[in-house]
Design goal:
The chain has helices at about 5-35, 45-80, 125-160; strands at about 100-105, 110-115, 120. The chain is mainly alpha-helical. It is elongated. The N and C termini lie far apart (about 75 Å).
Amino acid sequence: MGESALGSFFFLLSIPAVLAVPVWVVVVAVKLISVAAPGRRPDWRRDLLRWSAWMAGWGAVILYVLGAGAVGLAVHESSSGADSTPAHECRDDYRVDHLVGQTASYLPLRFDCVLDDGGTYPSSPAYFWINTVVAVLALASIALVVTNGYAAERRAAAQGLSGTAVRSRKPDRP
């Protein structure tokens, strides 16, 4: 897949991601309210750990897709039509006289302006923040999964279970 086709794919994928953001926010708010409200289930901590891992993971995916859609849109705008080069994102800088092109990356997310001396500079500081928040959410999701596994092992040990297998005892016969 070429860079423009990949950009178009991510841009089209970002449309459902834009719709997923308010749904994600509402689901997180409702869950936080349900945790704070009285009358919780006895296993609410285990459920909250598992749920938090899923929500952090989905938050990372949604934010990554939105950022990739922004990169895809920038690639599309900079490679099609009149007045597309240099990229609009690069024109606001004082080095516009030295621009020779642009580069895009989807991992990590970035859209850089290329100068005639071979140097580059980011077109927007937003990509740094998007990459940082995606990494933090992904690491939080992994940490929550590990914590949930550790908590499950501790519960099993506290109940007298060995690992994940249940020890079965045969009754003594007289």
